[in-house]
Design goal:
Blueprint lengths: L4 E3 L2 E3 L4 E7 L2 E7 L8 E5 L3 E7 L3 E5 L4 E5 L7 E8 L1
Antiparallel strand pairs: 1-2, 2-5, 3-4, 4-9, 5-8, 6-9, 7-8
Length: 88
């Protein structure tokens, strides 16, 4: 995402690199903030999520269920931030 917006089921509130790796009934969402501004951003995934099974300390789960909402506090080193989940 070059700017805030939506592509398919994913929405971001700031420029971000987002990769979703889906394997059966589980997925890992990987988020990077290429500008390295350090400002928090939100990622919304329009997909039913049973539960979040693991996430990095920089990832705050705002909601899981009908949709997944995450707040990423990326820092300034350009790291990848991960969240693992299982689907309904």
């Amino acid at each position: 995402f070059w700017r805030p917006g939506t592509a398919g089921p994913l929405t971001v509130t700031a420029p971000a690199s987002v990769v979703a790796v889906v394997r059966g009934r589980t997925a890992t969402l990987c988020v990077g903030e290429p500008l390295r501004s350090g400002r928090p951003l939100e990622v919304h995934w329009d997909r039913r999520v049973r539960r979040v099974t693991a996430h990095d300390p920089s990832v705050e789960v705002l909601s899981a269920g009908r949709t997944l909402r995450l707040r990423i506090t990326p820092g300034t080193v350009g790291a990848t931030h991960r969240c693992q989940m299982s689907f309904i």
